[in-house]
Amino acid sequence: MGKISAKQLLAYALVVFFIIGAIGNIIAPKTIMDDYARWGYPQWFHFITGFLELAAAILMLRKASRLAGSIIAVGIMSSAIITVVYHSEYSHMIAPSIVLILLIISIYLHRKKLTKES
């Protein structure tokens, strides 16, 4: 069994985060539904978020599609940050901001290797 590098570990941690997020958004307990309603999103919008998170996680699993999945994930986290800032819920901005930074680091680390291989 080969060693897992730090950048692979980061990528897999992000995959796990987005799978958990997808499950939470697809199942959407009352607290999540209340958040979406408070932010003015349609009642079904949690499904869109959940399936986008799941798509991002699936794409990030494979090295060949990791960049595409990461770009989708950046869009999701950016949208989350914009939503909570627009509604002045700054305390909700911490987690998506950290994940966004980790995604950018992951993209940089994986993109750098792709350009070296070319």
Structure in words:
The protein is mainly α. It contains 5 helices and no strands. Helix 3 runs antiparallel to helix 4 (66-86). 24% of the residues are buried.
Low-confidence spans: pLDDT under 50, at least 5 residues?
A: none
Question: What value does the Rg take, in angstroms?
Answer: 15 Å
Q: What is the rounded distance between the termini?
A: 27 Å
Approximate shape: globular
Helix segment tally: 5
Sheet/helix structural class: mainly alpha
Topology:
Elements: H1 6-27, H2 30-38, H3 45-61, H4 66-86, H5 94-117
Describe the structure in brief:
The protein is about 80% helix and about 0% strand. It is built from 5 helices and no strands. The mean pLDDT is about 95.
Index terms:
118 residues, 5 helices
